[in-house]
Amino acid sequence: MLNEPEPTPIAGVMVAECVPFCDDRGAFARLYCAETFGHRDRLIVQINHSLTRSAGALRGLHFQHPPHAEGKWVRCLKGRVFDVAVDLRQGSPTFLQHVSVELSRKGMNAIYIPEGCAHGFQTLEADCELLYLHTAAYAPGHEGGLRWDDVMLGIAWPLPVAEISVRDAAHSLLTDEFQGIKI
Predict the structure, then answer these.
(1) 164 inside domain
(2) From CA 70, how far away is CA 170, in angstroms rounded?
(3) Can you give the pTM of this predicted structure?
(4) Which of 40, 98, 114, 171 is the most exposed place for a label (fewest CB within 10 A)?
């Protein structure tokens, strides 16, 4: 069974849980349903899978600029991650605020990050696998990123950062001139 998504303090960011059907053979769970999640107008156009080997590794914070802004459902298939969404939408009452949730295989939960929000995560244990369902294809010329340690965001990552890509470590810090993304 797929539960209705629960809203978070940031408009459009939702968390959903599924309750698997279990019997002697094992379990069955529906991971996505456009009708349940209320996204009948947004097609899933790309599905990605990531594996992160070491605990404490950090990926993000990533987003895409319009006209290639994307919404995405993120689910942890193996392990546990601290998952973060940051509101970058120009004029939003929660501009530059973030929400976080622990995603795990055991928790059977997922987070939806809407267009205009950045996404990142830190692994809480080794060998974490995530599944992403995107509403827009990856567009290299429209990608953007935020620094994971930007004081303007105030994200309290649960572990010391054990690994981060060169690209993610090189994102610029925000300045007062940053007005957000117009969606």
Answers:
(1) yes
(2) 22
(3) 0.94
(4) 40
